[in-house]
Protein backbone atom coordinates (compact mmCIF):
# COMPACT_ATOMS: atom_id res chain seq x y z
CA UNK A 1 0.00 0.00 0.00
CA UNK A 2 1.25 3.47 -0.83
CA UNK A 3 1.48 5.91 2.05
CA UNK A 4 0.54 9.08 0.18
CA UNK A 5 0.71 11.11 3.38
CA UNK A 6 4.30 10.08 4.12
CA UNK A 7 5.51 10.40 0.53
CA UNK A 8 4.00 13.84 -0.12
CA UNK A 9 5.14 15.19 3.26
CA UNK A 10 8.64 13.82 2.71
CA UNK A 11 9.02 15.42 -0.73
CA UNK A 12 7.67 18.78 0.44
CA UNK A 13 9.71 18.85 3.65
CA UNK A 14 12.83 17.95 1.64
CA UNK A 15 12.12 20.96 -0.67
CA UNK A 16 11.85 18.70 -3.73
CA UNK A 17 10.27 20.53 -6.68
CA UNK A 18 7.52 18.29 -8.02
CA UNK A 19 4.01 18.28 -9.45
CA UNK A 20 1.48 15.54 -8.72
CA UNK A 21 0.17 14.04 -11.97
CA UNK A 22 -1.63 10.84 -13.04
CA UNK A 23 -4.10 8.97 -10.88
CA UNK A 24 -3.21 10.83 -7.68
CA UNK A 25 -3.88 14.16 -9.43
CA UNK A 26 -7.21 12.73 -10.58
CA UNK A 27 -7.98 11.83 -6.95
CA UNK A 28 -7.16 15.38 -5.89
CA UNK A 29 -9.71 16.64 -8.42
CA UNK A 30 -12.41 14.23 -7.21
CA UNK A 31 -11.91 10.98 -9.15
CA UNK A 32 -13.41 7.86 -7.57
CA UNK A 33 -10.97 5.52 -9.33
CA UNK A 34 -8.44 3.52 -7.37
CA UNK A 35 -4.81 4.39 -7.97
CA UNK A 36 -2.01 2.58 -6.22
CA UNK A 37 0.99 4.76 -6.89
CA UNK A 38 2.05 8.38 -6.60
CA UNK A 39 3.07 9.87 -9.95
CA UNK A 40 5.10 13.05 -9.86
CA UNK A 41 6.93 15.13 -12.46
CA UNK A 42 10.16 16.36 -10.88
CA UNK A 43 12.46 19.21 -11.83
CA UNK A 44 15.71 17.94 -13.32
CA UNK A 45 17.86 20.79 -12.15
CA UNK A 46 20.98 19.62 -10.33
CA UNK A 47 19.98 20.84 -6.87
CA UNK A 48 16.59 19.21 -7.11
CA UNK A 49 18.05 15.89 -8.21
CA UNK A 50 20.31 15.95 -5.14
CA UNK A 51 17.37 16.81 -2.84
CA UNK A 52 15.30 13.99 -4.38
CA UNK A 53 18.09 11.46 -3.92
CA UNK A 54 18.69 12.48 -0.30
CA UNK A 55 14.99 12.49 0.55
CA UNK A 56 14.27 9.00 -0.75
CA UNK A 57 17.54 7.29 0.16
CA UNK A 58 16.38 6.10 3.63
CA UNK A 59 13.34 4.42 2.04
CA UNK A 60 15.20 1.91 -0.17
CA UNK A 61 14.06 2.97 -3.64
CA UNK A 62 14.31 0.16 -6.18
CA UNK A 63 12.93 -0.43 -9.67
CA UNK A 64 9.41 -1.79 -9.39
CA UNK A 65 8.88 -5.32 -10.71
CA UNK A 66 12.56 -5.63 -11.56
CA UNK A 67 14.44 -8.79 -10.60
CA UNK A 68 16.30 -8.49 -7.30
CA UNK A 69 20.03 -7.84 -7.23
CA UNK A 70 20.14 -5.65 -10.33
CA UNK A 71 23.07 -3.22 -10.27
CA UNK A 72 20.75 -0.33 -9.41
CA UNK A 73 22.14 2.39 -7.19
CA UNK A 74 19.99 5.18 -5.92
CA UNK A 75 22.19 8.22 -6.47
CA UNK A 76 22.31 11.48 -8.41
CA UNK A 77 24.23 9.89 -11.29
CA UNK A 78 21.46 7.33 -11.77
CA UNK A 79 18.85 10.09 -11.94
CA UNK A 80 20.96 12.17 -14.29
CA UNK A 81 21.48 9.20 -16.60
CA UNK A 82 17.78 8.33 -16.74
CA UNK A 83 14.56 10.28 -17.00
CA UNK A 84 11.55 8.32 -15.77
CA UNK A 85 11.68 5.85 -12.88
CA UNK A 86 8.95 3.52 -11.64
CA UNK A 87 10.02 2.83 -8.09
CA UNK A 88 8.99 0.82 -5.11
CA UNK A 89 10.04 2.28 -1.78
CA UNK A 90 9.32 1.32 1.82
CA UNK A 91 6.63 4.03 1.71
CA UNK A 92 5.00 2.54 -1.39
CA UNK A 93 4.99 2.90 -5.16
CA UNK A 94 6.38 6.14 -6.54
CA UNK A 95 6.72 7.03 -10.22
CA UNK A 96 9.16 9.81 -11.02
CA UNK A 97 8.68 11.45 -14.40
CA UNK A 98 11.26 13.76 -15.93
CA UNK A 99 8.66 14.59 -18.57
CA UNK A 100 5.28 13.36 -19.70
CA UNK A 101 3.74 12.98 -23.15
CA UNK A 102 1.70 16.02 -24.11
CA UNK A 103 2.82 18.00 -21.08
CA UNK A 104 6.59 18.29 -21.16
CA UNK A 105 8.85 18.69 -18.16
CA UNK A 106 8.44 20.25 -14.71
CA UNK A 107 9.10 23.78 -15.93
CA UNK A 108 6.57 23.38 -18.80
CA UNK A 109 3.93 22.01 -16.45
CA UNK A 110 4.41 24.51 -13.65
CA UNK A 111 2.08 27.09 -15.23
CA UNK A 112 -0.55 24.37 -15.66
CA UNK A 113 -0.41 23.32 -12.01
CA UNK A 114 -2.35 24.50 -8.99
CA UNK A 115 -1.34 24.68 -5.33
CA UNK A 116 -3.18 22.22 -3.05
CA UNK A 117 -3.18 21.79 0.73
CA UNK A 118 -2.50 18.18 1.53
CA UNK A 119 -1.55 16.48 4.81
CA UNK A 120 -0.60 19.79 6.39
CA UNK A 121 1.71 20.89 3.59
CA UNK A 122 1.27 22.77 0.33
CA UNK A 123 2.23 21.07 -2.90
CA UNK A 124 1.45 21.44 -6.58
CA UNK A 125 -0.93 19.33 -8.62
CA UNK A 126 -1.61 19.34 -12.35
CA UNK A 127 -4.79 21.29 -13.18
CA UNK A 128 -7.82 19.29 -14.21
CA UNK A 129 -7.83 20.85 -17.67
CA UNK A 130 -4.17 19.93 -18.26
CA UNK A 131 -4.64 16.46 -16.82
CA UNK A 132 -7.33 15.81 -19.45
CA UNK A 133 -5.00 17.19 -22.14
CA UNK A 134 -2.10 14.91 -21.22
CA UNK A 135 -4.35 11.87 -20.94
CA UNK A 136 -5.67 12.64 -24.42
CA UNK A 137 -2.15 13.20 -25.73
CA UNK A 138 -1.01 9.84 -24.34
CA UNK A 139 -3.78 8.35 -26.48
CA UNK A 140 -3.90 5.02 -24.67
CA UNK A 141 -7.11 3.03 -24.98
CA UNK A 142 -6.89 2.23 -21.25
CA UNK A 143 -7.30 5.96 -20.53
CA UNK A 144 -10.70 6.24 -22.21
CA UNK A 145 -12.63 5.64 -18.98
CA UNK A 146 -10.30 7.98 -17.09
CA UNK A 147 -10.79 10.81 -19.61
CA UNK A 148 -14.55 10.27 -19.49
CA UNK A 149 -14.52 10.53 -15.69
CA UNK A 150 -12.27 13.62 -15.67
CA UNK A 151 -14.53 15.37 -18.16
CA UNK A 152 -17.54 14.40 -16.04
CA UNK A 153 -15.79 15.97 -13.01
CA UNK A 154 -15.24 19.14 -15.04
CA UNK A 155 -18.94 19.22 -15.95
CA UNK A 156 -19.99 18.62 -12.33
CA UNK A 157 -17.68 21.44 -11.16
CA UNK A 158 -19.13 23.80 -13.77
CA UNK A 159 -22.60 22.78 -12.64
CA UNK A 160 -21.75 23.61 -8.99
CA UNK A 161 -20.13 26.92 -10.01
CA UNK A 162 -23.23 28.07 -11.94
CA UNK B 1 -3.11 -7.11 -36.26
CA UNK B 2 -6.76 -6.10 -35.92
CA UNK B 3 -6.17 -5.30 -32.25
CA UNK B 4 -3.14 -3.15 -33.10
CA UNK B 5 -5.12 -1.31 -35.79
CA UNK B 6 -7.92 -0.52 -33.36
CA UNK B 7 -5.43 0.68 -30.71
CA UNK B 8 -3.85 3.01 -33.27
CA UNK B 9 -7.29 4.22 -34.25
CA UNK B 10 -8.06 5.10 -30.60
CA UNK B 11 -4.70 6.87 -30.23
CA UNK B 12 -5.24 8.98 -33.36
CA UNK B 13 -8.76 9.76 -32.34
CA UNK B 14 -7.85 10.87 -28.81
CA UNK B 15 -4.95 13.00 -29.96
CA UNK B 16 -6.78 14.80 -32.78
CA UNK B 17 -10.40 14.93 -31.82
CA UNK B 18 -11.45 17.84 -29.60
CA UNK B 19 -14.13 17.34 -26.97
CA UNK B 20 -16.99 16.49 -27.20
CA UNK B 21 -15.74 13.30 -28.78
CA UNK B 22 -18.54 10.76 -29.36
CA UNK B 23 -16.25 7.97 -28.13
CA UNK B 24 -15.60 9.73 -24.80
CA UNK B 25 -19.26 10.74 -24.57
CA UNK B 26 -20.18 7.06 -24.86
CA UNK B 27 -17.83 6.18 -21.98
CA UNK B 28 -19.20 9.10 -19.98
CA UNK B 29 -22.63 7.51 -19.87
CA UNK B 30 -21.19 4.80 -17.57
CA UNK B 31 -19.50 7.22 -15.15
CA UNK B 32 -21.09 7.10 -11.71
CA UNK B 33 -21.66 10.80 -11.07
CA UNK B 34 -23.01 10.17 -7.57
CA UNK B 35 -19.47 9.14 -6.52
CA UNK B 36 -18.00 12.24 -8.15
CA UNK B 37 -20.50 14.54 -6.43
CA UNK B 38 -19.73 12.86 -3.11
CA UNK B 39 -15.99 13.40 -3.67
CA UNK B 40 -16.44 17.02 -4.70
CA UNK B 41 -18.01 17.69 -1.32
CA UNK B 42 -14.81 16.46 0.40
CA UNK B 43 -11.56 18.37 0.90
CA UNK B 44 -8.54 17.25 -1.16
CA UNK B 45 -7.07 15.62 1.94
CA UNK B 46 -10.30 13.74 2.66
CA UNK B 47 -10.25 12.44 -0.95
CA UNK B 48 -6.77 10.99 -0.37
CA UNK B 49 -7.78 9.47 2.96
CA UNK B 50 -10.67 7.79 1.17
CA UNK B 51 -8.29 6.54 -1.53
CA UNK B 52 -5.99 5.01 1.09
CA UNK B 53 -8.95 3.23 2.73
CA UNK B 54 -9.91 1.93 -0.70
CA UNK B 55 -6.35 0.69 -1.21
CA UNK B 56 -6.50 -1.18 2.10
CA UNK B 57 -9.80 -2.74 1.09
CA UNK B 58 -8.41 -3.78 -2.32
CA UNK B 59 -5.38 -5.30 -0.61
CA UNK B 60 -7.60 -7.24 1.77
CA UNK B 61 -9.72 -8.52 -1.12
CA UNK B 62 -6.59 -9.68 -2.97
CA UNK B 63 -5.34 -11.44 0.16
CA UNK B 64 -8.69 -13.17 0.65
CA UNK B 65 -8.85 -14.18 -3.02
CA UNK B 66 -5.35 -15.61 -2.87
CA UNK B 67 -6.18 -17.57 0.28
CA UNK B 68 -9.34 -18.91 -1.33
CA UNK B 69 -7.34 -20.00 -4.38
CA UNK B 70 -5.01 -22.06 -2.16
CA UNK B 71 -7.85 -24.07 -0.59
CA UNK B 72 -8.20 -27.62 -1.91
SSE pattern of chain B, N- to C-terminal: HHHH
How many distinct helices of chain B? 4
- Number of separate strands of chain A: 9
What oligomeric assembly is this protein in? heterodimer
* Topology-level CATH name of chain A: Beta Polymerase, domain 2
Spans where pLDDT lies below 50 across 5 or more residues of chain A: none
Rg calculated over all Cα atoms of chain B:
19 Å
Return the average pLDDT of chain A rounded to an integer. 95
What is the total tally of β strands of chain B? 0
Task: Please tell me the overall pLDDT of chain B.
Answer: 83
Instruction: Please report the number of helical segments of chain A.
Output: 7
Head-to-tail CA distance between termini of chain B: 40 Å
Model regions low in confidence, pLDDT < 50 over at least 5 residues of chain B: none
Helix content of chain B: over 70%
Q: Estimate percent helicity of chain A.
A: 40-55%
- Overall structural class of chain B, as computed from helix and strand content, comes to mainly alpha
How many structural domains of chain A? Answer: 1
How is this structure best described in words?
The complex is a heterodimer of chains A (162) and B (72). Chain A has 162 residues and is of the alpha+beta class. Chain A has a single domain, classed as 2-Layer Sandwich (Beta Polymerase, domain 2), CATH 3.30.460. In chain A, 43% of the residues lie in helices and 24% in strands. Chain A contains 7 helices and 9 strands. In chain A, the strands form 2 sheets. In chain A, strands 3-4-5-2-1-9-8 form a 7-stranded mixed beta sheet. A two-stranded antiparallel ribbon of chain A has the order 6-7. In chain A, helix 6 packs antiparallel against helix 7 (144-161). The longest helix of chain A is centred in the C-terminal third of the chain and has 18 residues, at 144-161. Chain A is globular, with a radius of gyration of 16 Å. The mean pLDDT of chain A is 95. Chain B is mainly alpha-helical. Chain B contains 4 helices and no strands. The radius of gyration of chain B is 19 Å and the shape is flat. Chain A binds chain B through residues 1-5, 24, 27-28, 30-32, 34-36, 116-119, 132, 136-141, 143-145, 147-149, 151-153, 156-157, 160, and chain B through 6-7, 10-15, 19, 23-25, 27-28, 30-33, 35-40, 42-45, 47-48, 51-52, 54-56, 58-59.
Amino acid sequence: MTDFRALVSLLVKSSVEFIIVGGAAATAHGSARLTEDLDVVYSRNEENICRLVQALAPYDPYLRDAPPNLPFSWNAQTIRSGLNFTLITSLGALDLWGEIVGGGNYEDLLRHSIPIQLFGVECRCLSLEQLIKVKRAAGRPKDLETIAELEAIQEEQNHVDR
Amino acid sequence: MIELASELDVMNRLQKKPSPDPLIEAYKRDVDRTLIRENLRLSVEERFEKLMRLQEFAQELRRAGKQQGRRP
